[in-house]
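Researcher: Good morning. I'm working through a list of sequences from a screen, and I'd like to move beyond sequence-only analysis. For each chain I'm collecting a predicted structure so we can compare shapes side by side. This is the next one on the list. No need for commentary yet; just the structure.
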Amino acid sequence: PAPVATSSPLSGDIYAGYASNYTCRGIVASHALAEGDSVIPAGVNLNYKLCDANSIVASASYTTLTSGHHLMGDRDTSFHNETNFNLGWQNKDGLLKNLSTTLGWNLIHGGLLGSFAKYDHAHSVTQEFYLNLNYDLTQNWFAGVTTSYAFQGMTGWWFRPHVGYQAAICSNADFVLSAGMSATSSYFDNKSLFMSNGSQAWWLKAELPVKLGAKNLSLVPFVSFNWAGCGALKVNKGLDKGDKPYKNFGVVAGASLVYSF
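Model: Good morning. Structure tokens for this chain:
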């Protein structure tokens, strides 16, 4: 008899792209914050299937800032490129049908969160545990929330809920529209120079994933409209327009080339 084909338990994707602005959890950095604007993100996402319901997930990414790499123009303070490592356990449909649950650990070096950590510590590293819930409401609508607790560098809570809609335009293209926000609790103290706790950002994002001629290769252009929340706006108050670290409102556009396997 002919051998039965078996699929590999390992799947994932590799991506690289361009974005017009550096963003962190919806907050859009101004030109003044990092002496520049655009970024070049690249990374890999992996999923190792243990059984029908459970997987081990991991990811690594590196975001290069095309900027002067000095925080607010201070030649003695660097704004590092952002490195992110992630490892977690994922369950699908185990707790509730159409619900994906991921519990994991995240390490971040550099970027905005690393700059927060460096202000109070001798390093630019923050670590956190996170719980991610994603639920398919219908065939097209989805919603989710990521709750994370930082335990190294800065300590405290981040919350990032979102809701979205995805539909096929044709056999090779989809349209994805999502809205979300980020908020903190017990992350910034009352004397913080950065921000205050509460809402940090709100955003509306449109994506157009298009399958290219090559197998498993796609192009994902996007545009997002981002508003700074009350917490992030704290540091902008009282500063001249050219010195504000965050954009009160920012439009971020870009695209990624994605290879799936």
